[in-house]
Amino acid sequence: MHNFIFYLFYYFLIITLxxxxxxxxxxxxxxxxRKSHILKVHNTGGIGIGAFYIFIVINNEYxxxxxxxxxxxxxxxxxxxxxxxxxxxxxxxxFGILLSSAYLILNDLSLTDLGNYEIIGYIKLGKFSFLFTxxxxxxxxxxxxxxxxxxxxxxxxxxxTLAYFYFLIAKEEGSVLIIYxxxxxxxNLFLNLFPIKSGLKIFSGDSGSLYLGFVISFFxxxxxxxxxxxxxxxIWALWYPVxxxxxxxxxxxxxxxxxxxxxxxxxxxxxxxxxxxxxxLSTTIIAIINILIIILGYQISEYSKLLSLISFFILxxxxxxxxxxxxxT
Length: 329
Description:
The protein is mainly α.
């Protein structure tokens, strides 16, 4: 409890300093045709999250593997900062993500199998282990980056994911690290939902969304490999970014657009539009649905691993159909 209060106070100092620096050097996310805000907003929240995580790693030792993920993600954080300032090309960002991901995968964070299932046994990856892990991680990082489209959505999703991960490994070494990791997410979530005219509103920026995507991706792999939590329990925490990414990518390809095109074809954009751009309401609705589906997925996984995996794929087609219906109406 003492550490939690100390870390809470320390992060308040970090984020206050970052807001002051952002004002001093005029570091903002400026409005444009594909963004919903009409005034400039600080986009340095991800820097605060990264700085806080590194402070935790330097001053404590909770779990070396999880801590190595937080540190290795610094390259992604810097890449995101540069992108927020200079708008890097998708290919440059992808190269940086591939490079950082390959480093961790080659350091024993690769998937050699996808778990053991009733009837079929282990799904082994064999010689495709490295390639599969690299593609899966890069797609998930981009998927999490995709949901940073309305205020609070990215951070609420990450917070729910961290809470679920803590639930899965609550009695294991390193679980307390996840509790402390939630501190900047909670504070930034409140700041993210502040009125734009308050001057305290702050976005995560690409630095935050890419870094958090990197952390969540490799935490998922580590929790399976290190704590032996079956993959079907873990995939349900990722259903929304994965479903949204696949749906939008399919839609763009069908309409002969580049999969890397920026637009407002995401489900959360449609929901937000129907709620008259009430970001808080839209984020709350999606968060509630997210929690309910994770609980459902967990219960199915407890009953049958194979049924859970099949259900995950079936639910995607329901999601895609609902998304098409919402878009048309």
